[in-house]
Structure formats: C-alpha cells, structure tokens
Write a structure and sequence with these properties.
Length: 143
C-alpha cells in the first residue's frame, strides 16, 4: 500500500477544479489520469495545511467499584475523555469514555491486568477528530 496523503486516511472537504486537460489516443489512459490526479493532490497537500483525522471510539468499561480510579486514570493516560460513571448493581461501576482508536490496540490485555480479570469493556465508533500535532507529526514523518 502506498504511504502519503489519502493512503489509509480519509480525505474530506476537498474540492478540485480542472482548468485544462487533453486526451491523446496514444498517451492517455485511465491509469495516467489517476496518477496525474494523485500527484496533483500530493503537491496541493504539501503546499497547504493538512489536518489528519483519527477515529474516536466510545468505550464502556465495567469494573468493580474499587478499580474505578485506576481505570479512569488509565483512560486519561490514553488520551481518553471520561464522560461519566454509572453504578451497576451493588459493587460494579460502568465508566463511559471517548478515546482515540489507536490507543485501544492493547486495551483488553491491559484492562485484564489492571482489574485482575474482573473488568470488561465494549467499544463502538463515534466519529473522526483532528489528530493532535505531536501524533500527526509522527504519522507525517513515517509517510
């Protein structure tokens, strides 16, 4: 897979106007036009400010009451925003948070370790948000 603008990342809110172009029976092909469009997009992105977006998930974590503080701290360390907590039964709490999807890659393993196997979680896609500059700089450097 090719790295760079649009490769693995959605490109949104873009408008392109074609001012001039010609098709030639020998030199023109669908592939040639796709390459020209890709090169034009890459050149335009280099000349402007590009915001990288990252997927954000809503996470619901069910843990024993005595683990709530540790779970909330762990979520905050993963760039999560805690939305609230709800009491479930006599000794369990449901912690709801929004967290970037990339921060959840090892969450099942880490939650099991943190809660000694007593915690569980569910997640679902919420939306895309602009990536922080520090994280975006790492992605751009690797592209």
């Amino acid at each position: 897979m090719e790295k760079g603008v649009g490769a693995g990342y959605p490109v949104v809110d873009i408008r392109v106007t074609l001012f001039d172009g010609k098709a030639h029976s020998v030199d023109s092909s669908d592939f040639a036009f796709q390459m020209a469009g890709g090169l034009a997009l890459r050149e335009a992105a280099a000349a402007t400010r590009v915001n990288l977006l990252e997927p954000v998930d809503v996470v619901s974590v069910l843990v024993p009451d005595d683990m709530v503080g540790a779970v909330m701290s762990d979520l905050a360390g993963r760039r999560g925003r805690v939305l609230g907590t709800d009491k479930v039964g006599e000794d369990r709490t449901l912690v709801k948070a929004e967290i970037p999807e990339v921060e959840l890659t090892r969450y099942a393993i880490d939650l099991r370790s943190l809660s000694h196997g007593a915690g569980s979680f569910t997640r679902s896609f919420a939306r895309y948000e602009p990536m922080p500059e520090s994280a975006a700089a790492k992605v751009k450097a690797s592209a």
